[in-house]
Design goal:
The protein has 498 residues and is α/β, with parallel strands linked by helices. It has two domains: 22-28 and 86-400, TIM Barrel (Alpha-Beta Barrel); 31-76, no CATH class. It has helices spanning 2-16, 31-47, 55-63, 78-87, 134-145, 165-179, 194-205, 210-213, 232-244, 264-285, 312-328, 346-361, 382-400, 411-418, 428-433, 449-454, 460-473, 482-491, and strands at residues 67-68, 74-75, 92-94, 103-105, 111-112, 120-122, 129-131, 153-154, 184-186, 217-221, 224-225, 229-230, 248-252, 255-256, 291-295, 298-301, 306-307, 332-335, 366-368, 373-374, 379-380. Strands 5-19-18-15-13-10-9-8 form an eight-stranded parallel beta sheet. A four-stranded mixed beta sheet has the order 7-6-21-20. The longest helix has 22 residues, at 264-285.
Length: 498
C-alpha cells in the first residue's frame, strides 16, 4: 500500500508542475448582470465614495481628479476610475524565493493558496484546539512547501506567542520565508514595520535592492473597513509597500447582511467599489504598481449574524467576484474553502469542495483561505492542509476540462482495439496519457472494499496524519543560506528555533 500511494503522489506531482489551468467557463452572472453590477460599483464610487481617507492620500486623490463631498467623503468620477483601471498592472509576477517556483497572477490562471489569520490549531493527536504559535506557522508553511497543488502561502495563522507588533511581524515574515521557497504573503500591524522586513528580505537575497528585483513576498492589506471606510493604518502599510516595491494584495471583505447589503448583487457591487477604491489609490501613487484585488464577499448566517464560510451563497458570491474582475481584466483573489466545520469531516469536505471548485471554474487567479482552514477560518490543521491539497489536485484538473488535442480521437486505434484485444490498457496512447490526461490522489483511497479492510481500514484522516509525519521527518527546506540566516538572527529578534 505504501508503494501505491507513493506512486500516486509522484504521478500527481508530474501534472502539478504543469502551467496552472485557465478558468472562466463557469459564469454565475449573465453578461447583462456583469455590466449592471460593474456599473453599480462605479456609481457607488462616484456618488457615495469612501470615508476616512488619510490626508496625504486625500491630497493625491484630489490632484488626480477625485472630489470631496461636503461631509468629507472622497468620491471618484467614473472617468478617473476607468483611467486607473486602464493603467493598472494586468499581470502580477510573484517569484518564489526560488525563482522557478513563482507564479503569474492575472488572466484567469487558477492558483491555490493559504491565507487568513486563524488563532487556533487543531491537534491531530488529541482532537483539541489550542492557541496557534510561531512554530505552528512555520510547520504549516513547511507542509505547503511539499504540497503539489498549493502554489503560494499567505500567513494562515497568527503567532499568539508573539505580543509585540514589530516582533510579531518580523517573525511571521521570517518563518514564512524559511519554511517555503514558494511565493509567500504576510501582513503588517503598522506602516513602520514594512521597511525592516524588506531589509531582511534584501539580506536574505544577497544585498540592498535585491528584494525589489525578486519580490517573493506580497503584502496582504485590508485597506478598507466595510462599508466604504478606509482603514488608516492599512493605507499607510499600502503606501510603504508601494514605496519599497512589495507587491500588494488589497482586500475588501464585507459580510453580506452585516457590513454589506443582504442581496448578493448589492454585496458584490459594494465590494467591487471598495476593491476599486484601493486600486485607484495605488495607481494614483504609482501607475501600474503590481496589485492584486482580493475581493472577498463574505456571507452572514442571517439567523445569527455569524460569518459562514461554507455556504452555497459564499460559493456563488466568490465565483461571481472572480467573474467580475476577470471581465475587467484585473488580477483577482477570492476566498473559498472556509468551511464552518470544526474537523476534517464530511461537512468540511463538501463545503470546501464546492466553494473552491466554483471559484476555480470561474477563473479566480488566486484562491485564498482555501486549504487547511476549519471553523470559519478561526482554526488551522496540518492534516486538513494535506487533505485539501489532494482535493485541489482534482479541482484543478476539472478546470482544464476536456482537451481535444491532435490524436485525441483516433479511429484507427479504436478499430484496432475492438477487432483485436478488446481493451485499451496497453495502447501507446494510454501509456502516453497516463500522466498527462489523468491525475491521481495521494491520500484518497481507490481500493475495493475488501482490499481496504484487509489493509487496515485507514481513513483519509489516518493517511493525512501519516503524510504530515512523512513531511516533517524530511530535512527542512534549505533555500535560505545558513550563513545569511545566522546574520539575520544576529541582527533581528528572531524567536523561531534554529
Amino acid at each position: 500500500m505504501r508503494r501505491k500511494r507513493q506512486s500516486g503522489k509522484t504521478l500527481q506531482r508530474v501534472q502539478a508542475a504543469a502551467k496552472p489551468p485557465l478558468g472562466g467557463r463557469f459564469m454565475p452572472l449573465g453578461d447583462g448582470d456583469v455590466l449592471r453590477i460593474i456599473d453599480a460599483g462605479f456609481d457607488i464610487l462616484e456618488r457615495i465614495g469612501v470615508a476616512n481617507v488619510p490626508e496625504d492620500l486625500r491630497e493625491i486623490a484630489l490632484e488626480n481628479g477625485a472630489v470631496v463631498r461636503a461631509d468629507g467623503r472622497v468620491t471618484f468620477p467614473r472617468s478617473v476610475v476607468e483611467d486607473c483601471c486602464a493603467k493598472a498592472c494586468k499581470r502580477v509576477e510573484l517569484p518564489g524565493f526560488s525563482v522557478e517556483r513563482g507564479i503569474e497572477v492575472g488572466g484567469g490562471r487558477v492558483h491555490i493558496g493559504t491565507g487568513g489569520a486563524a488563532v487556533q490549531m487543531l491537534e491531530a493527536e488529541t482532537g483539541e484546539f489550542r492557541d496557534s504559535t510561531l512554530t505552528d506557522l512555520f510547520e504549516l508553511m513547511r507542509v505547503v512547501d511539499a504540497c503539489d497543488s498549493i502554489h503560494y502561502s499567505l500567513r494562515p495563522v497568527v503567532a499568539r506567542d508573539m505580543t509585540d507588533p514589530l516582533t510579531l511581524d518580523i517573525n511571521t515574515a521570517f518563518a514564512a520565508m524559511k519554511a517555503t521557497s514558494k511565493p509567500i504573503g504576510t501582513s503588517f500591524f503598522e506602516p513602520e514595520n514594512v521597511a525592516p522586513i524588506v531589509e531582511m528580505f534584501d539580506a536574505a537575497l544577497g544585498g540592498e535592492g535585491a528584494f525589489r528585483k525578486q519580490p517573493f513576498c506580497f503584502a496582504s492589506v485590508c485597506h478598507v473597513v466595510p462599508p466604504l471606510t478606509m482603514a488608516e493604518e492599512a493605507c499607510g502599510v499600502m503606501q510603504e509597500a508601494v514605496r519599497l516595491g512589495m507587491p500588494l494584495q488589497i482586500c475588501s471583505a464585507a459580510q453580506a447582511g452585516a457590513t454589506s447589503p443582504a442581496s448578493l448583487a448589492g454585496a458584490l457591487a459594494q465590494g467591487l467599489a471598495e476593491s476599486l477604491a484601493g486600486l485607484v489609490l495605488v495607481n494614483m501613487m504609482q501607475p501600474g504598481f503590481p496589485s492584486i484585488l482580493a475581493f472577498l464577499p463574505f456571507i452572514s448566517d442571517l439567523r445569527t449574524g455569524a460569518m459562514t464560510g461554507g455556504s452555497g451563497e459564499a460559493a456563488v458570491a466568490n465565483a461571481a467576484a472572480a467573474q467580475l474582475l476577470l471581465h475587467l481584466g484585473l488580477p483577482s483573489t477570492v476566498s473559498a474553502g472556509m468551511t464552518d466545520a470544526k474537523t476534517a469531516d464530511t461537512q468540511a469536505g463538501y463545503e470546501k469542495g464546492y466553494t473552491i471548485a466554483l471559484a476555480a471554474q470561474a477563473g479566480a487567479d488566486m484562491i485564498n483561505l482555501s486549504v487547511g482552514m476549519l471553523g470559519s477560518i478561526m482554526a488551522a490543521s496540518k492534516e486538513a492542509l494535506v487533505i485539501d491539497d489532494d482535493m485541489c489536485g482534482a479541482i484543478l484538473r476539472s478546470v482544464r476540462g476536456v482537451e481535444l488535442f491532435d490524436g485525441a480521437i483516433d479511429l484507427d486505434m479504436i478499430e484496432q482495439v475492438v477487432t483485436g484485444e478488446g481493451h485499451f490498457l496497453g495502447t501507446a496512447q494510454t501509456l502516453d496519457l497516463m500522466t498527462k490526461e489523468y491525475i491521481y490522489p495521494s491520500l484518497g483511497d481507490r481500493q475495493s472494499v475488501n482490499d481496504w479492510i484487509e489493509s487496515g481500514s485507514h481513513t483519509i484522516w489516518d493517511r493525512a496524519v501519516e503524510r504530515v509525519a512523512e513531511i516533517e521527518s524530511q530535512p527542512a527546506p534549505s533555500h535560505l543560506p545558513k550563513d545569511i540566516e545566522v546574520a539575520i538572527r544576529a541582527r533581528l529578534p528572531i524567536h523561531l528555533k534554529a
